Amino acid sequence: MIISNSQLSQLAEPLDAQFIDKLAQMLSGPQEPKQHQPLDQLRGDVKRMVDKALQYEMNTEQGAAYFVVTAFLLGEDFDQKFPAAGPVLNSKSLSSGEKASWLADWTTLMFRTLNEGRE
Predict the structure, then answer these.
(1) For 68-95, how does the pLDDT look when each residue is reduced to its tens digit (9 = 90+)?
(2) Which residue has the higher pLDDT, 58 or 33?
(3) What is the value of pTM for the model shown?
(4) Which secondary-structure segment (H or E) carries 112?
(5) For residue 12, what pLDDT is reported?
């Protein structure tokens, strides 16, 4: 199911809050990057990143979740800081799922490359 930005903003608050809460809880787990951040603050950060994902037309739960996780791993400004991200995220010809898949592959490659230097 794909939800447009205008439809998402019209959804009932509990649905929106439930998705954000689910992501926040996932990111606050014992092995996750935001494990020590208060959950209320984390929910606000997740909401801000979901809103940013929607600006890039990543309007599925999967797309928004990948964007949020990438932002928490690489920094909230990863879309500006890393030149490779902009063209993909701004592409009108890629679907939310294709952008999500690219983010997953790209982030994995970046961490693999960084890890090679440590071995």
Answers:
(1) 999 988 999 999 999 999 999 999 999 9
(2) 58
(3) 0.79
(4) helix 96-116
(5) 34
Nearest in space to 62 (alpha carbons), one of 92, 96, 29, 25: 96
Task: List, in order, residues 6 or more apart from 110 with CB less than 8 Å away.
Answer: 74
CA 36/CA 34 separation, integer angstroms: 6
- Compare 3 and 114 and report the one with higher pLDDT: 114
Given a contact cutoff of 8 angstroms between Cβ atoms, the answer to whether 100 and 71 are in contact is no
With beta carbons less than 8 A apart as the criterion, state whether 42 and 68 touch: no
Q: Where are the domains of the chain?
A: 5-116
**Cβ-Cβ contacts under 8 Å for 14 (sequence gap 6 or more):** none
Closest CA to 85 of 96, 95, 99, 72: 99
Within 10 angstroms of residue 46's Cβ, the number of other Cβ atoms is 27
